[in-house]
Amino acid sequence: xxxxxxxxxxxxxxxxxxxxxxxxxxxxxxxxxxxxxxxxxxxxxxxxxxxxxxxxxxxxxxxxxxxxxxxxxxxxxxxxxxxxxxxxxxxxxxxxxxxxxxxxxxxxxxxxxxxxxxxxxxxxxxxxxxxxxxxxxxxxxxxxxxxxxxxxxxxxxxxxxxxxxxxxxxxxxxxxxxxxxxxxxxxxxxxxxxxxxxxxxxxxxxxxxxxxxxxxxxxxxxxxxxxxxxxxxxxxxxxxxxxxxxxxxxxxxxxxxxxxxxxxx
Length: 265
Description:
CATH topology of the largest domain: Chorismate lyase
Number of strands: 10
Shape: elongated
Number of helices: 7
Strand order of the largest sheet: 4-5-6-9-8-7
Radius of gyration: 23 Å
CATH class of the largest domain: Alpha Beta
Strand content: 25-35%
Structural class: alpha+beta
Mean pLDDT: 83
């Protein structure tokens, strides 16, 4: 694809007069950031649609009036954001990715049902299941009255695959005396449906971080790929914490959606 007509005009695409070096735009940003912003805009407003092939690097170099390495740096950013795929070989090139489906942060079990209904293949793999004493960090999050005498908790670790691709790793920490039935459930059952009905509300903190060694292996990603980390705490009818659930997601496979409905008087 050598046509750049679909690309938004950018202040970098200046012409050279009398052999002068083209100037960078006035946005006060590095050239590669402006190029990435320009291409991202074309993808977000559907000027470039999923499956579309971007112009070749040499065409983008001419269009934006920059060096090839600058264009490659801009494409690196979009690839890390999960917006494009770059393929090698005779049928290779740079293509706009199909945007990943979103899961509802506070109702994961319902989101899984929606994914299946939409034709996605969903698989939950059991990784670990054990009963341990809560460590200090978990005890504090569960607001244990006496951290010196932490409760026994189920520690459940599962991997979530979407269409055969590792999408998330979930780690749940649930007090045994509150979730006794977990000990009799199939280890391969999705953990969220057991947690959500027992809570009146949840809180969550969302951060972006690089993958550690274990998550990098489980999610099959490189060390520089950013992951979405969601730390969630569920509260019971007495408004006391009942469980902790940490979910680490690949943003190129699955994204997070948060909805907030106003309570009607």
